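Good day; I would like, with your permission, to put a structural problem before you. A protein sequence and the structure tokens that stand for its backbone fold form the material at issue. Thank you for your consideration; the sequence and its tokens are set out here:
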Amino acid sequence: MTTKPMTTSNLLSSARAGLIGLGAAALLTAQGLAAAATHEDRVSTRPLTVEHIRISSKRSFDEVKAALESRIRPFQIDRLMPFFQRGDMAGARAHLEELAAPTGLSILYSLNHGGALAMDGGPRKAVGYGVGNVLTAVSMNKHNLAAGLYAPIRVVLYEGVDGTAVFEYDRPSSMFGLLGNAAIDSVAARLDVTLKELLTDVSK
């Protein structure tokens, strides 16, 4: 193998190439930092203090679950869609009001969390519910669409270690308060009372 002697010309060429490489790297780094800064400018954070509520029952999980599901009915989108397809907003509102009567609440969805534990150690009794009212959500969302983050209210019902039922959820007003809207706060305060009364009653 033969090597070429390092001449002044070769040294200058190597230095020039190195400087060009460093310049390109610096440019890419600057572009990356600028992109990151632009991205960070779009992200904001705020602390949220939430009040958590736990309601214990002397009744069994099955009894409390049956009591809850007999008190408030499940929301079914296929029954609501015909009103929207006809453009009958008054009919849609009347349907939703009837569905939520008399408590003002309905079950928007339910998830069998306990059944999924069959994949890891065995099933348990635990159900997550989305409890709320479409009309109530609309009354909040019209002021701030971010209210959809907390509506419906998530409630979990599970069987405690002693075999009795337990409800857990976060107080609505403590979550919606982040939005800083008086109209939303007023609705959330009513939800505080309605939801607690319902869950306490079915737990008796």
Notes: The beta strands are 52-60, 106-111, 126-132, 153-159, 164-170. Residues 8-41 form the longest helix (34 residues). Residues 13 and 61 are 80 Å apart (CA to CA).
